[in-house]
Every structure is written in structure tokens, then in C-alpha cells.
């Protein structure tokens, strides 16, 4: 499945009744996943500079992905996270019983991803 973050872009951050509203995408794949088509750096740059998102989580698959995708994904999230401007969460898409098609999106707020199961 191909994800295009531009389709989900919203160009304004809003404050409603004193509460900030943030826009982002919590489920997007890079080409580190077998079904992703966008380089992870291009994905982050598009999210920040074109879509003007407030946050994103690249959730590449734990199976059938590049061998070092988890390491790269954590490094890129830490690199593109800009405190006070842009939040790059760490996460991945866990596959439970592939024959039954079970997927679970997993997120962490820590910068090393150690509070989630490493695929
Ligand atoms: Zn997915």
C-alpha cells in the first residue's frame, strides 16, 4: 500500500478554546518496508517542509523489511525531531501471525525506542 503524506497535509496549526491542535500522520511507511516507496529522508523532509505537519511516526514493518530498518528508523526519528517545532515519534508495524494478517502499530515516546519490543 502506498502512502502519500501530502494527501493528509493541513497547512495550519490551530488553537481552539485555548487548546492547541496538532496535525500529523501516525502510520506511514518508507522504502525500508517492502511496501513503502519513499526514501525515509524524503518522507521526513516532505512532512516538515511541504505538508507542514507537527508530528509523524514512520511505522515500517517488522517483517520483510530491510535488515537494519529498525536501527535506521530510530536514528532518523532522533535526527528529524525538532523540540518545540516537529515531533518525530519512534514506532513500527508489528506483524502477529502473518498467516492471519494481524498488524499492530506500536509507538514510543522515548528517543531510543527501548520501551517497545524490538522486531
Ligand atoms: Zn502499515
Structure description:
The chain is of the alpha/beta class and 119 residues long. The protein has one domain. Helix content is 19%, strand content 27%. The strands form 2 sheets. It has a 4-stranded mixed sheet. The radius of gyration is 14 Å and the shape is globular. Zinc ion binds next to loops. Zinc ion (ZN) binds next to loops.
Could you give the order of the helices and strands? EEEHEHEE
Instruction: Extract low-pLDDT stretches.
Output: 1-11
Attached small molecules: zinc ion
Total of helices: 2
Strand portion: 25-35%
Number of strands: 6
Quick structural gist:
This protein has 119 residues and is an alpha/beta fold. It has helices at 40-50, 69-80, and strands at 14-16, 19-21, 24-28, 55-58, 87-96, 102-108.
Topology of helices and strands:
Layout: E1 14-16, E2 19-21, E3 24-28, H1 40-50, E4 55-58, H2 69-80, E5 87-96, E6 102-108
Parallel strand pairs: 3-4, 4-5
Antiparallel strand pairs: 1-2, 5-6
The structure holds zinc ion (ZN).
Zinc ion is lined by residues 27, 29, 59, 93.
Name a few traits of the molecule:
alpha/beta; 119 residues; globular; 2 helices; four-stranded mixed beta sheet; binds zinc ion; two-stranded antiparallel ribbon; 27% strand
Amino acid at each position: 500500500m502506498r502512502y502519500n503524506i501530502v494527501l493528509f497535509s493541513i497547512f495550519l496549526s490551530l488553537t481552539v478554546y485555548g487548546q492547541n491542535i496538532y496535525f500529523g500522520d501516525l502510520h506511514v511507511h518508507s522504502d525500508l518496508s517492502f511496501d513503502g516507496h519513499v526514501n525515509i529522508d524524503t518522507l521526513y523532509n516532505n512532512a516538515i517542509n511541504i505538508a507542514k505537519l507537527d508530528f509523524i511516526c514512520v511505522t515500517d514493518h517488522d517483517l520483510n523489511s530491510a535488515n537494519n530498518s529498525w536501527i535506521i528508523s530510530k536514528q532518523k526519528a532522533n535526527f528529524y525531531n525538532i523540540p518545540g517545532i516537529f515531533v518525530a515519534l519512534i514506532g513500527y508495524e508489528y506483524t502477529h501471525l502473518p498467516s492471519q494478517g494481524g498488524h499492530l502499530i506500536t509507538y514510543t515516546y522515548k528517543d531510543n525506542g527501548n520501551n517497545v519490543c524490538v522486531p
